User: Which sequence fits this backbone?
């Protein structure tokens, strides 16, 4: 459906005050939380009752965002979360394309008999689950789509510092500080608007990226020095972090964020993979340069997906088997990996 028609449909649903729940994908990142917080402040200005419910914890480096302290964490407080879900008559799903991506929340969300609205930039949106999908894979981030939604009303009228900081956080984190997904002029036009409004972009960058604990930085050093395998013939580097590695460096949620990007800074490396050991699953984080689609790789072999150059997945097995599974599929992609850029 045409974007304007979707915006008009959403506008109609928001004509009268509603009880709204905003939710995001499991393991929420800067774009998920930034988008949710920007939408939260905007909807409150339109006189709606709004609650953000995240399936699980978000990283500490996002906790300074105004309104982050109001976010309910479903895995920590299912009972309170459910009272908000029961009272809701509208659900916004941000930064994910299918209900399964909401992890522990998915069963509750599937049961809801209220309109579900999707605002997202991932491939293959699960259209049947939503009354409206405001979905565009060409934008850098869901935050850009939240900007477009607010702009449809009147951005200058509604923007405040909380909204500007949240939108910038989403764009900045999903572009790796403006290093990828930045070939669309609108990304910079929106950013310019936020700065013209008075956003202190340097400060936001510092709050997100210059707040490492010592152990987080040492974990990064350990990951690169001791846990990285380089497969030159497949233009691929793989970092594996076991439970022991994470424990040794006092792992906190968010501490591995960004680790996967480092191997891509090597010349002739076109795919980077971070493999981490969680409770009973192995998580994969994929990044690529150029035409190689890690979305396809994640979807075909690792129960996942995402974007062409950034995707994730998981398998229920042990670390060694998971890494071997990855190594065993690399030959199938040899040419595509080598010729990616
Ligand atoms: P990350 O590696 O940062 O966890 O995820 C990279 C991108 O892939 C994000 O846009 C994220 O939403 C998406 N993603 C991560 N894990 C999964 C997954 O298991 N399934 C799908 N469909 N997308 C994922
Ligand atoms: Mn995103």
Assistant:
């Amino acid at each position: 459906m045409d974007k304007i028609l979707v915006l008009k449909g959403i506008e109609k649903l928001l004509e009268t005050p509603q009880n709204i729940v905003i939710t995001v994908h499991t393991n929420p990142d800067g774009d998920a939380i930034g988008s949710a917080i920007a939408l939260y402040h905007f909807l409150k200005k339109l006189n709606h009752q709004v609650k953000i419910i995240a399936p699980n914890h978000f990283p500490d480096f996002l906790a300074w965002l105004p309104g982050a302290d109001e976010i309910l964490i479903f895995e920590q407080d299912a009972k309170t979360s459910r009272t908000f879900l029961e009272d809701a008559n509208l659900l916004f799903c941000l930064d994910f394309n299918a209900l399964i991506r909401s992890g522990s929340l998915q069963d509750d969300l599937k049961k809801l008999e209220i309109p579900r609205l999707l605002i997202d930039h991932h491939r293959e949106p699960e259209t049947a689950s939503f009354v409206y999908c405001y979905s565009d894979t060409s934008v850098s981030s869901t935050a850009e789509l939240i900007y477009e939604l607010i702009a449809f009303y009147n951005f200058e009228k509604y923007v405040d510092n909380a909204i500007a900081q949240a939108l910038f956080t989403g764009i900045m984190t999903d572009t790796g500080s403006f290093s990828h997904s930045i070939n669309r002029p609108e990304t910079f036009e929106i950013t310019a608007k936020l700065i013209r409004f008075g956003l202190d972009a340097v400060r936001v960058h510092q709050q997100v990226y210059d707040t490492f604990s010592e152990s987080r930085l040492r974990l990064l050093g350990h990951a690169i020095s001791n846990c990285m395998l380089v497969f030159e013939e497949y233009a691929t580097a793989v970092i594996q972090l076991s439970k022991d590695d994470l424990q040794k460096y006092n792992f906190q949620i968010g501490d591995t964020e960004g680790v996967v990007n480092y191997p891509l800074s090597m010349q002739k490396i076109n795919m980077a993979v971070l493999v981490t050991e969680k409770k009973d699953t192995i998580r994969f984080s994929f990044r690529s340069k150029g035409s190689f689609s890690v979305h396809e790789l994640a979807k075909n072999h690792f129960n996942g997906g995402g974007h062409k150059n950034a995707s994730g997945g998981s398998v229920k097995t042990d670390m060694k088997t998971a890494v071997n599974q990855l190594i065993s599929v690399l030959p199938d992609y040899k040419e595509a990996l080598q010729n990616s850029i």
Notes: The chain has two domains: 3-209, 214-338. The mean pLDDT is 97.
